[in-house]
Each structure stands twice: as C-alpha cells, then as structure tokens.
Amino acid sequence: MGLPAGDEDQFAEYWKQRITLFCSGDTMASPSEQHRSAAPTVVNCAVVTVSDTRTLETDSGGACLVELLEQSGHVVATRVIVPDDPEQMQPLLNEYRQQDSIDAVLMTGGTGISSRDQTYETVQQLIDRPLPGYGELVRMLSYNDIGPAAMLSRATGGLMDHTLLLTMPGSPAAVKLIMAKIILPELCHLVHEAQR
Predict the structure, then answer these.
(1) Residues near 133 by beta carbon (within 8 Å), at least 6 away in sequence
(2) Which domain does 48 fall in, by range?
(3) pTM over 0.90
(4) Are 168 and 135 in contact (CB under 8 A)?
(5) What is the spatial distance between Cα 129 and Cα 76, in angstroms, rounded to a whole number?
(6) How many domains does the chain have?
(7) Would residue 50 count as lying in a domain?
(8) In 3D, which of 142, 132, 136, 135 has the Cα closest to residue 177?
(9) For residue 37, what pLDDT is reported?
(10) What does the buried/exposed string (b/e) look like for 7-26 if buried means 16 or more CB atoms within 10 Å of the residue's CB?
(11) In this structure, what CATH number is given to the domain that contains residue 153?
C-alpha cells in the first residue's frame, strides 16, 4: 500500500497541480469540472487519530495525514489523539461539528473489527448523511492491494450537519493510498457540496 520510497516530492507536486485543476476553475471544460470550480481551494481540517497507545511522537499515520494535507495546500486547524472510546470521541466530534472553522474531520485508526474498535459505531451515530461510496472505495482499493482481508476495514464517512467526516485505517501506507486515490481528488468538491 502507498507510494514507493522517494516519491514524496513527485506526489506533492502532482497533487498541487490536481488541486489547482479541480479547485481553482482555471481551465475547466467538462460539466463535472465546472461544478468543482465553485469549490474552495483550501479546506480547514481536523485530524483525529483514534488510539489507546499512540502519542503525537509515535502517531505515524496521523503525521502522514497532516503532511499530505499541508503538501496539498490545505490547513490542519487541529490535530488530536483520542482513545477508542465513544464517551471521548462523541463530544470531540460534536465540538468539531459546531465549529465554523472546521470544514472536514479526517480520522485515522479504530476502523477494524476487534472488540476495542468503536470508531465505526460512534461515527455512524453522528452522521446525518452517509457517504456509502467512500467506504466501498476504500475497501475496493484495499482489496487490490491486500486481497480479501480488505473486508476487515470499516472505513466510513458522511456529513455531520455541514461538516465532512471520513475515517480510515491508521497505517501510513493506508493513509497515503486513501488520500491519493480518494480524498485529495475530491476534498474541495465534497466540502463545497456539504456546505450548500
């Protein structure tokens, strides 16, 4: 999963060009591209790592997510680590839902099927408008990489009122793949649609 070593600079340049194309509206031609032209060019994000053991120093998945967002020109308004505990996740996510300064919440970790993984259930209770295609795409990409073990991922997404919320596995390889193939190409567009 992810990019070969040494491709980070090429990845960053590629996404800067893609963000300009999809978000700025400079050279739009197709109706779908014209539709994206009204989207913001910068998205303010909250990055949440779900873990009972990670710290900011050991959270490689969250660090990867922050780096990819910033390389793409987006703002990481806040980054936190929260235990995989609904009583701690719910108030935090509800706080982000109410903050006008947060357009999207991107969560890493807690998407598995172990008894400790509570992220899916917690997020499902807070989502007003689910995006079932997001989880389907995550599992499809994962299947191409790891085979049928992809079914163990319960990545999910949707809207909490007008705030986009997407979950993903916590490994840096999974974060890179999902950001490159799913989130970054549509982030501006998703936020625009969520806020309409």
Answers:
(1) none
(2) 42-194
(3) no
(4) no
(5) 24
(6) 1
(7) yes
(8) 142
(9) 78
(10) eeeebbeebeeebebbbebe
(11) 3.40.980.10
